[in-house]
Each structure stands twice: as structure tokens, then as C-alpha cells.
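Continuing the batch. This is chain 6 of the set; chains 1 through 5 are on the previous pages. Same settings as before, nothing changed between runs. Recording input and output for traceability.
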Amino acid sequence: MKWIYLSPHLDDAIYSCGGLIWEQIQSGQEVEIWTICAADPPEDQFSPYAESLHQDWGLGKDAIKIRREEDRDACQILGAVPRYLSYLDCIYRKAPRGDFYYQSDQELFGGLDPGELTLIDTLTGQLQDQLPLDAQLVAPLGIGNHVDHDLTRKAASRLEVPLYYYADYPYAMENEGKEIQGFLFGSMDWKEEIFPVSEVGILHWGEAARTYQSQTSIFWENESALKEDISEFSAAMGGVKLWKTVEND
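Output for chain 6:
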């Protein structure tokens, strides 16, 4: 079977499911990671907000290129095949009048701007056209309410294919996992499936995650803290936990 993980950014799928991806590949399954927002931004002026994030990452105008290199290294450690779609990270996207859609943390985690709602159908159509018929798709739940995670979840949810969801790490660790339960409430019934991850799998998960050096300092004190948190996250989940709606059963 071929597994395809949808990753909003150049780190999300491996941060969230790296141990499971490694285990699947070791068992002889094919795994691809499709990163949605992986396009190089135009070379015109960035917003002050984007520039501040570049500074936090320790990167300049080639930020996305460098992050793709980090992602290739991470995928190589696990044995996954990376694929990059041509959508801009939300911090680079502009409205037709030329204003940037998202210029603060509040806007970044406030849901899609109404002017971008058509992006959902555009992405759904592209995925529908390009997904192999025999693939098992895994998408983010959208925990944390990041704009691009929301986009990815909503686009994937409109596909008429079997679909698993993963908990967006590290956002899913906030409030001791209560964020996850909040995303599973509603009119639909959910089923969960736990995929065990061995100690060796957790080791590879941590090694793959550490390659995203531009992002480590945003969430963790150092690489050791990152690896420790991933181990704790896996222990709390019993490995890696995926969800699906009863409708997709």
C-alpha cells in the first residue's frame, strides 16, 4: 500500500507522524509526503511580519529553499519520498489589491481570510486529479487553527477517498492533549487507531525532526528537548494515533 501524508508546511507530517512513517517504510510500504505550502515566494518585498519570522528562523530571502533542503534530509532519514506542491505559505500570500492577507500571529491562527476560501476547492481539485487510486491519505486535524493547516484539512475532507487524520504536533501537546478532543467533538462520530512505534522508530523520528533546524528554536530550547518531547508525545499516544470518521469507515 502507498501512504500519502499531507503536510501543510515543510515539517508538519514528520513532526506529527515521523515514527509511524519510519515503521511503515520498514514494513515494506511506500510513503510519500506531499507538502502543500512549499513554493518559493516572489522576490518582491516581504511583509514586515514575514521578515520577522525569517529572522526568528535564522533565515533570509531563501527561507523556503533552505526549508525544502531540511525536509529532504528528514525524508531521507525515514525513507519517505517528498513531493512539493506549488502553494505559497500564507505569510507570503497577497490579496488582489496587493495587501498581505496575514500580518500577525493573531491572523496566522485566525482561520482563512474570506478572500482565500476558493483556495480550498482549488487544492481539493488538484489532489483529486493527482492522488493515486490505491493510496491511503493522511491529513492534519488542524489543531492550533493555523491558516495553512485549516486549508489542508478542509481540502482533504472534501475528497471522496478513505481518509485518516493526524494530530498536528507540537500544537497537539498544548493543554495536555485537550486540544485534540476539541477537534473531535461535533456531529460526526470518530474512530481512533493506534499504530505502535518501536524505540528504534522513535529514535529515527527524533533524528528526522532535528533536521528542521530553522524551526527547532521556535518551539524547543534545544535538540535534546525536541527529542524528549517527541518521545513523550509518542508515549502519551501509545505510538502514533490516527483518527477517521465513521462515514469514512
